[in-house]
Design a protein that fits this description.
By secondary structure, chain A is α+β, with helices and mostly antiparallel strands. Helix content of chain A is about 30%, strand content about 30%. Chain A has a single domain, classed as Alpha-Beta Plaits. The longest helix of chain A is centred in the first third of the chain and has 14 residues. The chains are: A alpha+beta, B mainly alpha.
Chain lengths: ~150, ~80
């Protein structure tokens, strides 16, 4: 059941920041090896961002994301996912079909390019939520109801 | 009788403000795909604790709310958004 059609996929891979900083080339080589084994043609490959994670993954609180667009045979995506999940260096991976994506969207500047000195701090907002804030936030479920007011 | 006149005026104002936003935020922008990597816009649809706002609260249409739900859950898996805070 081999299909001849190759589709465009978008893969986001999460790597430990310390590992990425220590040996960036080796990380890229490893990802290329996974994709080449499945016969994928890489369209673009770049660092998406280096940010603080929303929660610890494998005991790590920071991670580097690598965004790869590639053409691949749909039946061989499973093989890539298996390789990636068995790898100890890749913490998380998400491969999605992106047939309808435009060239502009593909070349859109990544957060790493927009904020070279640490955009991960934006993500820290979630940590500021206190208990009193929550009650205020979740109770005013319908702000527009106040417009009517008591008669 | 004199009381009823200002009430009518008030009601007219309300109908105008409600009619201004007949579409949800994503429909207005004409987005066909909600990207899970676009954390800034997804974060606006979460409480401080990381819960997803209801449709009533966020004002999304059913179609967009489903897409937002999927995008947020993908972002959570990748460690971009919190499951709970």
């Amino acid at each position: 059941m081999e299909t001849a059609v190759k589709r465009l996929y978008e893969g986001l891979f999460l790597i430990d920041s310390a590992l990425a900083a220590a040996d960036w080339d080796q990380v890229l080589e490893m990802l290329k090896k996974f994709l080449n084994r499945a016969g994928a043609e890489i369209v673009s490959m770049k660092k998406w961002d280096d940010r603080k994670l929303a929660y610890d993954i494998r005991g790590k609180s920071r991670g580097t994301y690598i965004l790869i667009y590639f053409h691949c045979d749909p039946s061989r995506i499973q093989g890539i996912e298996r390789d990636v999940n068995l790898s100890e260096q890749v913490m998380r991976a998400m491969i999605l079909r992106t047939d309808r994506i435009s060239q502009e969207d593909m070349n859109k500047p990544t957060p790493a390019e927009l904020h070279p000195e640490g955009s991960y701090e934006e993500n820290d907002v979630s940590a500021e939520g206190d208990a009193p804030d929550l009650s205020a936030e979740e109770n005013d479920d319908l702000p527009e109801e106040g417009v009517f007011g008591p008669e | 009788m004199a009381r009823e006149v200002p009430q009518n005026k008030r009601r007219k104002k309300i109908t105008i403000t409600l009619r201004e936003q007949t579409q949800c935020r994503f429909c207005r922008e004409g987005k066909r795909y909600i990207d899970y990597k676009d954390i800034e816009s997804l974060q606006k649809l979460l409480t401080n604790r990381g819960k997803i706002f209801s449709r009533k609260r966020s004002g999304n249409c059913a179609h967009c709310q489903r897409k937002v739900n999927l995008a947020i859950k993908r972002a959570r898996f990748m460690g971009l958004l919190p499951y709970t805070a």
